[in-house]
Design brief:
elongated, binds adenosine-3',5'-cyclic-monophosphate, four-stranded antiparallel beta sheet, alpha+beta, single chain
Length: 176
């Protein structure tokens, strides 16, 4: 009987869900988002979803930073105009944390072209353009790490207890 209990406990241990690790995604409010007064609306959407804000600041991006940021677009005809547009005005940089945050933030953001983006997404609801698509969102965990390093110092990123987390994820998801 005791042995049976041990076997059951062993199986239960093996079947325990693996705790999911939180990711961080960088969001930039682009100059058009700032001019159109959409900062509050955009923050609200990520907050309401259940993501945790761990860094936030307004800054002007240099040509050097933008060249690194958009390195994968360097051969595209819009590379120069995109950098000029992004450096024309301050942007608001945010770092959002959560389980599978990169994928989740991309979904809330919508596809690149505003007129084609899904209704209900930020771009689908507020953008009519391909370039003026309001926000940038990291496309992978690796890209997010690179972008985080380009706009935030370690001191600007905050690790804190968020009261809503027990009501946002299950115990299993939190690994408890
Ligand atoms: P994002 O996907 O955040 O990153 C690359 C940006 O380049 C994109 O948003 C648009 O703002 C811009 N972009 C993409 N395609 C074009 C295009 N064909 N013409 C002008 N800008 C573009």
């Amino acid at each position: 009987m005791r042995e049976d209990r041990k076997v059951i406990e062993l199986i239960e241990e093996k079947l325990k869900p693996i705790p999911m690790t939180a990711e961080r995604s960088v969001v930039l409010l682009k100059p058009d988002g700032l001019q159109r007064g959409l900062l509050g609306e955009i923050i609200t959407r990520f907050e309401r979803k259940g993501l945790k804000l761990v860094a936030l600041k307004m800054l002007k991006l240099s040509d050097e930073t933008l060249s690194s940021w958009y390195e994968h677009h360097k051969d595209k005809p819009f590379f120069g105009p995109l950098k000029s547009f992004m450096s024309s005005m301050p942007v608001v940089a945010m770092l959002w944390e959560g389980i599978e945050a990169v994928k989740t933030v991309r979904k809330l953001t919508g596809t690149t072209h505003g007129r084609e983006a899904e209704a209900g997404s930020i771009r689908g609801d507020f953008s009519m353009s391909q370039q003026l698509n309001l926000i940038h969102a990291s496309d992978s965990v690796e890209t997010a790490q690179k972008e985080q390093g380009l706009v935030f110092t370690e001191e600007e990123i905050f690790d804190y207890e968020h009261a809503a987390m027990p009501w946002t994820y299950s115990e299993e998801e939190r690994g408890e």
